[in-house]
Amino acid sequence: MNITKEVNIKKINKELQEDTLDIIIEEVSLEIFVNHEFYATLMCTPIEVKELAVGFLFSEGVITSTGSIESIEEKYENRVCIILDHEITVDPSSARAITSGCGKGSIHVISLEECSINFIESNCKYAIVNILELMGEFNSKSELFKQTGGVHSCCICSYNNILLFSEDIGRHNALDKVLGKALLSNMDLKDKLIMTTGRISSDIVVKVSKAGIPIIVSHSAPTSLALSIAKAANITIIGFARGSRMNIYCKKYRIF
Predict the structure, then answer these.
(1) Chain Cα centroid distance, residue 96
(2) Same domain, yes or no, for 83 and 147?
(3) What DSSP line would sit under 68-127, residue for residue?
(4) Which regions of 178-255 does DSSP assign to beta strands (E)?
(5) Choosing from 44, 81, 102, 154, which is the catalytic residue?
(6) Which of 85, 172, 211, 228 has the fewest CB atoms within 10 Å of its CB?
(7) 153 and 247 share one domain
């Protein structure tokens, strides 16, 4: 499936008007089935959909590792079917977000209400200079953003390297994709850092806490609830990491 398409537009720049072509990002509905039962629909960019499904189910608490997955199959262009080694109960009345928008992420509202977070034990340390260098590399990595301006990106880093990178129209989806990749590769995340192009909201922190990642970095801002959850989970939050500056909001002891 194509992930971009060309559209006819009229470009206006001061007095100059021009009929031309523009490249925009595709948005599709992805149906996730678990044990042959419909579980959720996500609006997403149609790449890395298996990884998205795995990361989403992990964020939802349906799986805690890939060890419980017996098979993953992408069917048609918009459906991923996952078979688990255990049964799950799907509550049709549960409040499940299905859009890619900023108001609701791909996580059950009940997960936020219960605030089911993990306390991160990691005492890893990251140098300011390394974080800013990684952010500079991260910001220039997305070819889809350069083409369309319409995607968010997320990456998992070691002290001086970007290890995994994903992008999607939704910042929650981009995070679920990169977490899905990490799970499928059995990556140890206790000393890793995660970067996102989107704001750091409460649901982002809940997802990261479940993965056991101790540091979140964004070139955008955190919310008040995100900081409250991060403090409880012992997660370092860094916002406005741009150029030669950053704001460290909590758990500053990991940054030097």
Answers:
(1) 17
(2) no
(3) GEEEEEEETTTEEEEEESS-----TTS------SSSS-SS-HHHHHHT----------B-
(4) 193-196, 215-218, 236-242, 245-250
(5) 102
(6) 85
(7) yes
Which residue range forms the structural domain that includes residue 102? Answer: 28-114
pTM here is: 0.90
At 182, list the tokens: 């990490």
Domain count, the chain: 2
Digit-coded pLDDT (tens) for 57-112 = 999 999 999 999 999 999 877 899 999 999 987 765 554 545 555 444 554 444 44
Place of tokens 């149906």: 31
Other C-beta atoms lying within 10 Å of the C-beta of residue 108 = 21
Number of neighbouring beta carbons within 10 Å of residue 147: 15
In a domain, 11, yes or no: no
Same structural domain for residues 191 and 231?
yes
Q: For the segment 108-120, what is each residue's pLDDT rounded down to a tens digit?
A: 444 444 556 789 9
Q: Does 167 reside within a domain? A: yes
Q: Are 58 and 45 in contact (CB under 8 A)?
A: no
102 is a catalytic site residue:
yes
Q: Output the DSSP codes for 144-195.
A: HHHHHS--EEEEEE-SS-EEEEEEESSHHHHHHHHHHHHHHTT---TT-EEE
Q: Domain check: are 87 and 149 in the same one?
A: no
More confident residue, 145 or 105: 145
